[in-house]
Amino acid sequence: MEKTFNQNRNWVYRAVSLLSFNGGFVNSITFVGFLHNPVPIGYVTGNITMAASNLTEGNLSEFMYLIYAIACFLFGSIITGIIIPQDNFKRNNKYNLVFILEVSLILLGMIGLLLNFTQTKYFLAMALGVQNALTTFYGKSIIRTTHMTGTMTDLGISIAHKLKGHTVPVWKFNIYLFLIGGFFIGSIIGIMFFKLIGYYSLIVSILICTIMLKFKTYPKNLFQEEDLEK
Fold first, then answer.
1. Mean pLDDT (whole number) for 129-141
2. Fewest CB atoms within 10 Å of the CB: 37, 47, 95, 146?
């Protein structure tokens, strides 16, 4: 693992833990804060299902709300894809630019919600789309930090391969556990903070993204294909 990028594995573990914590944190705040249905704003699968349900029941306002949330998440991912081309894993300031964008979106969302401009909640959906696309580029679609469905599936597959006698690198299990654990803890703390200070809780998310800005370097490509063979 260390041979494929300039950061040691502790750097990666810290990065995925912080970002999955942030994903769980923001998702939990949207879950308890402003959604009319029990689906976090970064959970696109659930939002699509709820959109379909509301459409069939004739709840067009709820349907459009969910469609806007999905579209904003998608738009955030597109922006990251434009800033950081998939075939370019060179270390540069483009990663910092994406984190600055995420901070700006969360700040706008927080300020708007504090002022009761509820439409600014879509900035949070866009911010999660930005973050999820960014970490995908870290790991060639291995790392997701705003929802855990794919991560749990990958963990299950790795466990199955291990049970069948195949060699599975220990770092894979560590990465998946750090992602799931970070997201879970972030969700707990997000709910606790929201109950205490409301939307001011999003300041924590802004601080996490700022910490990521302080990380001195970024991996050229977190996992190379030869890693998957080990």
1. 73
2. 37
Residue 36: partners with Cβ closer than 8 Å, 6 or more residues away: 62, 65
In tens, the pLDDT along 175-223 reads 999 999 999 999 999 999 999 999 999 999 999 999 888 765 554 444 4
- DSSP run (H or E) holding 125: helix 121-139
Task: Name residue 145's amino acid.
Answer: T
**DSSP-assigned letters across all residues of 68-108:** HHHHHHHHHHHHHHHHS-TT-----THHHHHHHHHHHHHHH
The burial of 212, by beta-carbon neighbours within 10 Å (0-12 exposed, 13-18 middle, 19 or more buried), is given as buried
Neighbouring CB atoms inside 10 A of 138's CB total 23
Which structure tokens are listed for 226?
């030869």
Q: How far apart are CA 81 and CA 160, in angstroms?
A: 33
Express as a percent the part of the chain with pLDDT over 90: 49
- Letter for the amino acid at 204? V
Task: Tell me the C-alpha distance between 133 and 227, whole Å.
Answer: 21
- Dist. CA 121–CA 74, nearest whole Å: 15
What does 143-187 look like in DSSP terms, one character per residue?
--SS--HHHHHHHHHHHHHHHTT----HHHHHHHHHHHHHHHHHH
For residues 132 and 68, give the distance between their C-alpha atoms in angstroms, rounded to a whole number: 18
The tens digit of pLDDT for each residue in 154-165 reads: 899 999 999 999
* Tokens coding 107: 């700040």
